[in-house]
Design goal:
- The protein is of the alpha/beta class.
- The chain has one domain: Glutaredoxin, CATH 3.40.30.
- Helix content is 36%, strand content 25%.
- Strands 1, 2, 3, 4, 5 and 6 form a six-stranded mixed β-sheet that branches.
- Helix 3 packs across helix 6.
- It starts with a helix and ends in a 7-residue tail after the last helix.
- 23% of the residues are buried.
């Protein structure tokens, strides 16, 4: 039985090896790299602040408005969701209320790696750590036939609290200039 499993795994490995090789690089000319500009909206929240506060429809509207603006200016829009729910399961349930995100970070509460990255390692007492938040970022991604270079993220806007986020979204969620 063990030998049969090994043979089956060997056969699977050969099929995978013979198939097309996935790549993250575009087939661009070697002399002309492709530069993509990206707008990223990072939403940080918890089920406790979002379920009753109006954040669910506001964030759904924000994603639609930012997708439209990014496309109109030749940029790609990326929606990131970060849930401060302590468990991964609860975080997934929380973020699923908002529809689709391109990237998510779940579990860990205030020690979640995305929370620490975007809010800092010292938590407490300041407006900067209030939840919910939307942080707008920009970056460039350069691709060529053999290389991918992801540039540093640059913060272009930050909206803190349900009132500030809702007001910004009702105004069309304009991208800062």
């Amino acid at each position: 039985m063990r030998r049969a499993r090994l043979v089956a795994l060997g056969g699977l490995a050969s099929v995978l090896a013979a198939g097309p090789t996935p790549t993250i690089f575009h087939s661009a000319s070697r002399s002309a790299p492709v530069i993509e500009r990206q707008v990223i909206a990072l939403y940080l929240g918890t089920l406790g602040t979002d379920a009753e506060s109006g954040m669910v429809p506001a964030i759904r509207e924000m994603k639609t408005a930012l997708t439209r603006q990014a496309t109109a200016t030749g940029r790609e829009f990326i929606a990131r969701g970060v849930s401060l729910e302590p468990s991964v399961d609860d975080g997934l349930r929380h973020l699923s209320l908002f529809g689709i995100f391109d990237e998510v970070s779940l579990g860990g509460n205030w020690t979640n790696s995305a929370v620490v990255r975007y809010l800092g390692g010292t938590i407490g007492g300041t407006r900067a750590t209030a939840i919910p938040q939307v942080i707008l970022l920009e970056r460039e991604v350069t691709r060529d036939a053999s290389r991918l270079e992801v540039g540093d993220e640059r913060e272009i806007g930050r909206y803190i609290g349900t009132k500030e986020i809702s007001t910004w979204v009702r105004g069309g969620a304009p991208l800062p200039r």
